[in-house]
Amino acid sequence: MTQRSPRIGMIGSGAIGGYFGYHLARAGFDVHFLLRSEYDAVASRGLAIVGKKFADAAPIAVNAYRSIDEMPKCDWLMLGAKATSNDALAPLIARAAADGAKVICMQNGLGVEDALRPMLPESVHLLGGLGWIGVHREAPGVVRHIALGDIHLGYHSGPQDGQSPQSILDEGVAIFTASGVGSQAIPNLVSARWRKLVWNVPYNGLSALLKVNTKVLSEDPDSRELVISIMEEVRQGAAACGCPLPKGLSQELVELTVTSIGDYLPSMYFDAMLHRPMELDVMYAEPLAAARAGGCVLPRIDALYHALRVLDRQSDANAVAAA
C-alpha cells in the first residue's frame, strides 16, 4: 500500500503563507488554503508570485476555501497570519488539524508559540517557522518577492505519541526542500527567535516611524548607526536570557540588507500605513520583559516601543474615522 502525500493546510495566506504555499502547491503537494478577503481573486485567477526570480512564473490554481468547515483535515498546518489574530485563528487550527497534526507558527516575535500552545489541542505538535525572506502582498492573490526565501524550523512542544521532535523536524525540512525552498532544522527555537529579532526590531519599527525603506535605513549614516545600536541591544537582551549571539551579527545583518535586500519595506511599515494593528507585543513588549527578567534594561528598544505605541493608537483612531 502506498503512503499518501501529507495534506498541508495554509491558515492565513498573506505574503508569507502565500509564498511558501505557492511553492508547495507548485511542487505537487496536497495543499489547501483558507482565505478571507482574497478568496474570490484566488478562486478565479489562482495564486501568483512576482519578482525578478519569478518573471516567467504563471499563476497556479490552488484548493481555496472560504470556510474552515469546507477544508479537509490536514497533517501539517502552517499559520501565516500575524500574531495579533491568533485568538481568532486558534479555533480554526483546532478544527482543521488531523490527529497528530504538526502546526508551524510562521510568525515574528518572541513567545508566540508559548502564547499559542494553550489554545491548541494537546494532540498536535507545535513548531516555530522562521522565514528569512522579503515579501509583501501586492494585490489579492499576488505576492511580490523581494529577496531571500528560506524557512528554518524549530520544535516547540507536542504529545508523546512515538514521533521524536527530530523526526518531525526532518519531515518538515524534507517537505520544504522538495518544494524548492531552502530549509533547515534549528536546535534552539528561542535563540533563533532572538536572532531574527536582531533584524526585525530596528528595521520594522524604524521603517514604520520614519516611513523609509531598508536601503535608506542601512545607508544613511545616522539611521545606520541607530540600527546597529538597537541591534546590539537585542543581542544584550538575548544574552541576558541565556541565548548569546555572535559578536559580529549586527554588522553582518546590515551588510546582508545592503547587498541582498535593498529597498525593502517591512511588514510593519505597511501595517502603519494601512492602519492595521502592529505586532508590538511579540516584537517589543515580550523581548523587553524577558530581558528585564534577566536583569537587562534596553533603553533604545524601550523608546522605540513607546513611539510605536503612539503610532499604533493613531492608526486605530484613523481606521475608526475612516470607517
Automatic annotation (TrEMBL):
In terms of domain of life, where is this protein from? Answer: Bacteria
Domain Ketopantoate reductase C-terminal, first and last residues per copy: 189-310
Annotated metabolic or biological route of this protein? Cofactor biosynthesis; (R)-pantothenate biosynthesis; (R)-pantoate from 3-methyl-2-oxobutanoate: step 2/2
A Gene Ontology cellular-component term = cytoplasm
Q: Which reaction does it catalyse?
A: (R)-pantoate + NADP(+) = 2-dehydropantoate + NADPH + H(+)
Entry GO MF terms = 2-dehydropantoate 2-reductase activity
Q: Which Pfam families match?
A: ApbA, ApbA_C
| GO biological process entries | pantothenate biosynthetic process
EC numbers listed for it are 1.1.1.169
UniProt domain Ketopantoate reductase N-terminal: residue ranges: 8-157
Q: Does the keyword Protein biosynthesis apply?
A: no
SUPFAM superfamilies listed in its UniProt record:
6-phosphogluconate dehydrogenase C-terminal domain-like, NAD(P)-binding Rossmann-fold domains
| Keywords of the record | NADP, Oxidoreductase, Pantothenate biosynthesis
Q: What class of enzyme is it?
A: oxidoreductase
List, alphabetically, the InterPro entries matched. 6-PGluconate_DH-like_C_sf (IPR008927), 6PGD_dom2 (IPR013328), ApbA (IPR003710), KPA_reductase (IPR013752), KPR-Related (IPR051402), KPR_N (IPR013332), NAD(P)-bd_dom_sf (IPR036291)
Tell me yes or no: is NADP among this UniProt entry's keywords: yes
Would you identify the family this protein belongs to, as annotated? Belongs to the ketopantoate reductase family.
Role, per record: Catalyzes the NADPH-dependent reduction of ketopantoate into pantoic acid.
Q: Which NCBIfam families is this protein grouped with? A: apbA_panE, PRK06249.1
Q: What protein does this entry describe?
A: 2-dehydropantoate 2-reductase
Report the source organism: Paraburkholderia solisilvae
Lineage, highest ranks first: Bacteria, Pseudomonadati, Pseudomonadota, Betaproteobacteria, Burkholderiales
Give the gene name.
panE_2
